[in-house]
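Lay summary

Proteins are chains of building blocks that fold into shapes. Our project writes down both the chain and a compact code for its shape. Here are two examples, one after the other.
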Amino acid sequence: MKYYPAYLNLQGKKTVIVGGGNVAERKVITLLKSGAAVTVISPTLTNRLLKEKERGSIIHIERNYRKGDLRGSFLVIAATDMPALNSRIATEAPSLVNVVDVPKECTFIAPSVVQRGPLTIAISTGGASPAFAKTIRKELEKAIGPEVGEYLKFVSSLRGKALAYISDKKERERFLKDLASEKTLHRLRTKGMQALKKAAEEQLEKLKTSR
């Protein structure tokens, strides 16, 4: 099966997780980081999920799943240890649904993810081998260090200044492309964040004064 890759805006969206074990916990933590409004339906919760409940980060419905529990949801994840129940949830979901480790019952599958600040890299084998997707993720984590995320945050702030201070359109485009070039990535890895930051700020200052 071929999947269409997409990033979802879950900010404030109702997301329902059925299940309260370790698998559900991993899904909940990821969804919370995405800003989703998370409801967990399960008689029991892991210790981590109990802490999230105490913080008010999630809504907990402390019982087994019932028909109608998915009403108004934007996204649903079936993460119980009962295949028949997971299948039932998949058929009753009014929206996007993921049944953990059963791609054929999903309307979307969750990729393996590398996160470096604003940078998100999603890896999927289309359900062929989730384990291999994780292996590739580990390789990418070695190749793309946390300094990339730090640099992207810096570029985001510098981009705003460039738009405000560099009036010449061609000069501005050249400056922004240079910030994102392969050469710059090489400099980041060899010279470090501080050296790159200093050079970029000095270049911006020159372009400002030459307007």
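And here is the second example, written the same way.
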Amino acid sequence: MRDFISKAGELQADYISIGGRTLAFDQIFNEAFFTPSKIKELRETYNAPYPHLFFEGLFSPILLELMYSEFDSIKWYDWKHYDNINELKIGSRPFCRLGNAAQIYFNTIHSGVFVDLLQQITGIDGLIPDPALDNGGLHVSPTGGKFAMHIDFNQHFVTKLDARLVFITYLNKDWLPSYGGALELWSADEGKCKVEIEPAFGRSILFLETSKSLHGCPKPVNAPGGRLRRSAAAYFYSNGHPEGKSTQFISTIFQVAVTETRRGRAIAAIKLVTPPIVISWFRNLRYRLRK
């Protein structure tokens, strides 16, 4: 890796300045993860309850801190709200205008060198990223935020390519287990949690998408001061799947059907007669007040 600062104190590498902070392009990710020996180690770690692994220190802390600070600058109409019996979270919309640091992050994980790293680790050839970030992008979980145990959708909604991998990076400093929001990976056959991953700052997780990849964040976020749980997610696809090419799109499947309460039914009825723009405005106001 090239030196960022010369002996004379002059900048030597290509870099960008964001929010008064300098980020060298050759320091965006940790090159140690791209050596043959490290790739071999990661490939051997990619295991049960279904193939997954997590990385610590893969990306520049400066880049991640800048990404964290950009959440508040995204326009309210670029957020999509999920508020129902199975989930409470907020996600950026496809094709929305992200901050500079977030765009650099997603450009990096969609680059040829990074996609090739994923292919070498997983053994999946022909991986295809999704620059539109449909279902991916930036995610926020407020107080009470959760995502019930589920199996992800099987195809990209537009291209019909088969979903193969999901890659998530967490952006939460000093996050404690008592704050909730941990990602749980379950054995679908045994019906119980096998791996619990705290959403700590700079931690990334990769896991395989199959009909048995049961996962979720069932423990609601309960961080002090209304603190938000933040992350960045991306899906990777291929033309074909070992389980067989599906002829139709199958949406997210939640593990257990939950019966709506009387209050839940009343809220659903109100949503039916309320203009979407009013609902979006109210949700955005509530999100701002929680911060």
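What can we say about the second shape? The first helix runs from residue 36 to 45.
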